[in-house]
Amino acid sequence: MTNSKRRKGLAAASALLGGVLVLSACSGGDDDASGGGGDASQSQQVDKAAAEKTSEAQIKITPKNGSSNASINNDAAVTVSEGTLTEVKMTTADGTAVSGEISADKTSWKPSAQLERATKYKLSATAEDSEGRAAHENSSFTTVSPDNSFIGTFTPDDGSTVGVGMPVSINFDKAISDKAAVQKGITVTSSGGQEVVCHWFNANRMDCRPDEYWQEGSTVTLKLALDGVEGAEGVYGVQQKTVTFKIGRNQVTYVDAKTKQMKVTQDGKTVKTIPISAGSPDNKTYEGQMVISEKYKETRMDGSTVGFTDDDGKGEYDIKDVPHAMRLSTSGTFVHGNYWGAKSIFGSANTSHGCVGLSDTKGANDSGTPAAWFYDHSLIGDVVVVQNTGDKTIAPDNGLNGWNMDWAQWKAGSAV
């Protein structure tokens, strides 16, 4: 054989071998008359057999693998079609297990509790189809960070019983620029059918109340559907919660600084009259409708914390065991027991630095004092109306005191 013919023969053999390799790798093409089709057919049969062994179960994990800023409430979930879930494992990046539950029909799974912010999670799921063939899926994602989310701290507490003046007050930990979007995610309703309107005092605080005090015995429901709501650019809500509280008996107390008497009314009828000592002429008590926001059997009152200091910068008073104290304003107005003043001042002289004082004994253990009686018969959310002090009306946002704004003004502060 000449060298020329030998080279042509080798080239033909090489081309044939190359064709076989291509067909084997791709499992495609028609059978070749030169003999390569036998290998191709065998490869097709192997692939077909492998496909027949693959589970028909289709697992879907949310959020999408690699997601960031995921919701801590709703995003994490596993579902399956054409099969049932047999195992789902969720852990933090450091391997801490996250509890969850597969649904009764074994087609879905969700975490049992709210996730943590700024945390990376890993999810792995296994499912089987009707033939018992297993399918697997894995994903990881990171939840929204504190810097990119906001939370609203609300009052009153879920399940509590409060007075008729208690507004729903929400303080956000980030300034809200899209107030309308956030307000649309918050609803407040009353079983008494009263219209409830929310009012923004500033970018961080929104209070909600009806035109008149809540109806006695009604139930108020607050729903926060803020998950994923963009409150400011790049800052999203994470809360999804329903809160209910009950309105107790209708108690409104009237403090008259001129007569130095306090009338406690229930359903409009006076149930007790108590002598008081309000703010002195130099330190008058605010006037207006004030709501009890906190109660302390005993607490410390330091004048320096509210601007009452002497020439040395020390507080004009510092009483570490003030009994039966109930807060009326953020700025430091209280109605409280007074054991250090002469008993003769109550009902006859206004001597305080702006609080409303009632006769009491040291230690707050004498249930027979006027202060103890009022403390025991008061709820968070009860209204105390202070009159005839000669001072200005308290600002509506100084405490829970939005009742000092008329209904038209209140509604004007709504963003929706």
Automatic annotation (TrEMBL):
Q: What is the lineage of its organism?
A: Bacteria, Bacillati, Actinomycetota, Actinomycetes, Kitasatosporales
> Which Pfam families does the UniProt record give?
Big_10, YkuD
Give the annotated active site: H336 (proton donor/acceptor), C355 (nucleophile)
This protein's UniProt keywords: Acyltransferase, Cell shape, Cell wall biogenesis/degradation, Peptidoglycan synthesis, Signal, Transferase
What is the protein name for this chain? Ig-like domain-containing protein
Give the domain of life: Bacteria
Instruction: Please give the residue ranges the record annotates as the region Disordered.
Output: 28-56
N-terminal signal peptide: 1-25
Q: Which residues form the L,D-TPase catalytic domain?
A: 251-387
Q: In which pathway is this protein known to take part?
A: Cell wall biogenesis; peptidoglycan biosynthesis
